[in-house]
């Protein structure tokens, strides 16, 4: 089974606003900062589905590094748990 991250059930999803997320059509979303030596991109997002609370990272960039400080902050705040995909 595959391990996934999700927001804990006892967390009010409005708490995500404190971390720069916005509410968008059934998901909470935050655009991440990405920089490379050549270009600046704004197409990397952390998405949290409202119904499942699963955390997904959406990106078209496969080989470069991007900033996951927001995800780290959510984990450190105790808002995230690891679950197994069923």
Would you write up a description of this structure?
Strand 6 (45-49) and strand 7 (55-58) form a beta hairpin. The strands form three sheets. Strands 2-3-6-7 form a four-stranded antiparallel beta sheet, with no helix packed on it. Helices cover 9% and strands 36% of the residues. It has one helix at residues 69-76, and strands at residues 3-7, 22-24, 27-31, 34-35, 40-41, 45-49, 55-58, 80-84. It contains one helix and eight strands. It is mostly beta strands and 86 residues long.
SSE map:
Blueprint: E1 3-7, E2 22-24, E3 27-31, E4 34-35, E5 40-41, E6 45-49, E7 55-58, H1 69-76, E8 80-84
Antiparallel strand pairs: 1-8, 2-3, 3-6, 4-5, 6-7
Main attributes of the structure:
86 residues, mainly beta, 1 helix, four-stranded antiparallel sheet, two-stranded antiparallel ribbon, globular, single chain
Number of helices: 1
Whole-number mean pLDDT: 83
Largest sheet: 4 strands, antiparallel
Shape label: globular
Task: Give, in spatial order, the strands making up the sheet with the most strands.
Answer: 2-3-6-7
Question: How many domains?
Answer: 1
Which runs of at least 5 residues are low in confidence (pLDDT < 50)?
A: none
> What's the helical proportion of residues?
under 10%
Task: Write down how many β-strands occur, each being a DSSP E stretch of 2 or more residues.
Answer: 8
Judged by helices, strands and strand pairing, the structural class is: mainly beta
* Spatial gap, N to C terminus: 7 Å
SSE order, as H and E? EEEEEEEHE
- The Cα radius of gyration reads 13 Å
- Portion of residues in beta strands equals 35-45%
């Amino acid at each position: 089974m595959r391990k996934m991250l999700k927001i804990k059930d006892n967390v009010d999803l409005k708490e995500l606003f404190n971390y720069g997320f916005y509410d968008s059509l059934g998901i909470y979303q935050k655009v991440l900062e990405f920089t490379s030596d050549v270009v600046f991109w704004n197409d990397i997002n952390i998405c949290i589905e409202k119904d499942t609370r699963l955390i997904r990272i959406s990106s078209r960039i496969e080989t470069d590094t991007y900033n996951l400080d927001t995800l780290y902050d959510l984990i450190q705040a105790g808002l995230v748990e690891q679950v197994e995909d069923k």
